[in-house]
């Protein structure tokens, strides 16, 4: 069975565009969802309110455009190569938030963005995934990988639903990232099958996307409603590509470099994680909070809120 022809440059460009659109969507949707009371969490009433907010509809449009761009990206290149580029969504979210919320980025924000950029470059250069194909994966492997991921998502949602507000946002953020990561893997499977001439609706993965897509969207809105982006955005940023890369290597049969190159990949991943933690503490992700300079906690922000 022929494998798809990889187009890494096109895939990388499209994934960066998808990350940009996702950042726009996150800020706009959070701006709308923050006005919803906690009692409406996990309810259709929350969506009824959001449908009447223009900023939320703009955010949804950006998210849909990002979804399509993302799907094309992983269809033309190895998922373990392009999916890590989604971590650029967090620094892009900060830069956009600085404009929307009228706040200034700190020196530490720029340092963290630089660290994330270097870490991402090192990770991709050292891992350099190649080969493998979703079309060569057996049905049992698909079921095992997707089932294990779905079980983890369900556990995170259960614990998050019972947790406090910010803990709920953090756990739902991780669950949402995992759901989007699994969805990306399913889309890669659909794309590979269609490229080989298989009817779209003859693939089991297509039905998985139909089910998981709305579930991911539902989890995203509840994560955004549950707390500020400080709590939820790191989960979106790291879990999504982590799940997809794991799928690419463990299920699709993509192969990364080993030996000393593996140490470089781990080092790059550590830099990305450290940068994400630093960026997640930026006051730009907490425009609703009232923080002050010079207090004992060292928490710096502005008392201005978004319009």
Describe this entry's structure for a reader.
- The protein is mainly α and 307 residues long.
- It is 70% helix and 0% strand.
- It is built from 11 helices and no strands.
- It is globular, with a radius of gyration of 19 Å.
Give structural attributes:
11 helices, 307 residues, mainly alpha, disordered C terminus
**Average pLDDT figure:** 77
Number of strands: 0
Rg measurement, Å: 19 Å
Order of helices and strands: HHHHHHHHHHH
Unreliable stretches covering 5 or more consecutive residues:
290-307
Q: Helicity, in percent? A: 55-70%
Write a compact overview of the structure shown.
The protein has helices at 8-33, 44-50, 54-76, 79-82, 89-100, 107-127, 139-162, 165-195, 204-226, 229-250, 260-280. It is mainly α and 307 residues long.
List the helices and strands and how they pair.
Elements: H1 8-33, H2 44-50, H3 54-76, H4 79-82, H5 89-100, H6 107-127, H7 139-162, H8 165-195, H9 204-226, H10 229-250, H11 260-280
Helix pairs in contact: 1-3, 1-5, 3-8, 6-11, 7-8, 8-9, 8-10, 10-11
């Amino acid at each position: 069975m022929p494998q798809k022809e990889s187009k890494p440059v096109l895939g990388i460009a499209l994934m960066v565009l998808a990350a940009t659109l996702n950042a726009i969507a996150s800020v706009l949707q959070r701006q709308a969802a923050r006005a919803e009371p906690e009692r409406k969490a996990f309810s259709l009433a929350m969506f009824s309110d959001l449908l009447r907010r223009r900023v939320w509809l703009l955010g949804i449009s950006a998210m849909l455009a990002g979804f399509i761009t993302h799907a094309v990206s992983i269809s033309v290149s190895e998922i373990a190569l392009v999916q890590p580029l989604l971590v650029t969504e967090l620094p892009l979210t900060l830069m956009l938030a600085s404009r929307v919320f009228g706040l200034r980025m700190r020196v530490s924000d720029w340092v963290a963005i630089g660290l994330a950029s270097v870490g991402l470059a090192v990770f991709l250069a050292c891992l350099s995934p190649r080969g493998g194909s979703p079309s060569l994966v057996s049905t049992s492997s698909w079921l095992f990988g997707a089932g294990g991921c779905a079980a983890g998502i369900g556990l995170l949602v259960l614990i998050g639903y019972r947790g406090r507000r910010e803990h709920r946002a953090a756990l739902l953020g991780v669950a949402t990232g995992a759901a989007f990561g699994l969805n990306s893997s399913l889309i890669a499977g659909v794309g590979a099958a269609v490229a080989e001439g298989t009817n779209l609706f003859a693939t089991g993965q297509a039905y998985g996307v139909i089910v998981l897509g709305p579930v991911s969207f539902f989890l995203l809105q509840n994560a955004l409603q549950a707390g500020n982006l400080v709590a939820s955005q790191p989960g979106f940023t790291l879990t999504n590509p982590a799940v997809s890369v794991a799928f690419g290597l463990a299920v699709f049969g993509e192969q990364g470099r080993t030996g000393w190159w593996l140490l470089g990949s781990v080092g790059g991943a550590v830099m990305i994680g450290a940068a994400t933690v630093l960026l997640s503490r930026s006051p730009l992700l907490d425009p609703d909070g009232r923080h002050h300079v010079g207090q004992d906690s060292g928490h710096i922000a502005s008392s201005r809120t978004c319009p």
